[in-house]
Amino acid sequence: MALKEHLKEARNRLFKSAIALVLGTVVGFFIYNPVLVALSQPIQEIGERTGRTAELNFDGVGSPFDLMIQISVFLGIVVSSPVWLYQLWAFVTPGLRQKERRTALGFIAAAVPLFLAGIYLAWLILPNAVLVLTDFTPEGFANIITVTVYITFLLRLMLAFGIAFLLPVVLFGLNMVGLVTGKQVLKAWRITVFLVCLFAAMAAPGADAMSMFYLAAPMLLLFFIAIGLCLLNDRRRDRRTASRDADLEANADKASSIDGL
Questions:
Q1: Which of 134, 136, 133 is nearest to 205 (CA)?
Q2: Are the C-beta atoms of 160 and 76 separated by less than 8 Å?
């Protein structure tokens, strides 16, 4: 394709992605109230469990509207993720071989549910995380929290979980393009386990070790599955390379025999 056609194709893909994002944001507007109520539930439980005053506060006239836009756009990105990820894949597809296209489509098929699973897991541990963090409040003080700060913290936490669940897919992608091998990744399993547990401890604080376990266990499982896939891909690549070398050697011997005649 000529450069002009590539630009036209990119414009069409971006336009479709933008439409999906807008429609997803509209859906976000409709479910904004129940989502906000669910996100604020942990703050309400603080008062019920500890008897301490805890409430969310808007600090500006336009803050409620800004918060609605922020949550709706975030929900729109999540809802429309299959569409804009597919549009990205479809734009890259013309430059790939048939086998590479199937691999790229496999990345999309794995990335979307993993990203959503990470967000859902963060949603499940949010009440425990909020309760532990607010337990550091000294006796006699209240938790009057700015709602925009609170919601931004929750959305970032969910985004961190979603991205963390995508790391095994990225790792396998790096192996597919030959940047890392399965053996190289396997050698670093100790430091990887330590870093995963450290990330889980910081991103998912809880009253006990269960909150960390809920994040670390699936991440480690996905990591070792990715290592297994990398090792299998390395073995397949080695067999293909050995077969190609054998064919080249056979052709070279045949050419030498013909020259000798």
A1: 133
A2: no
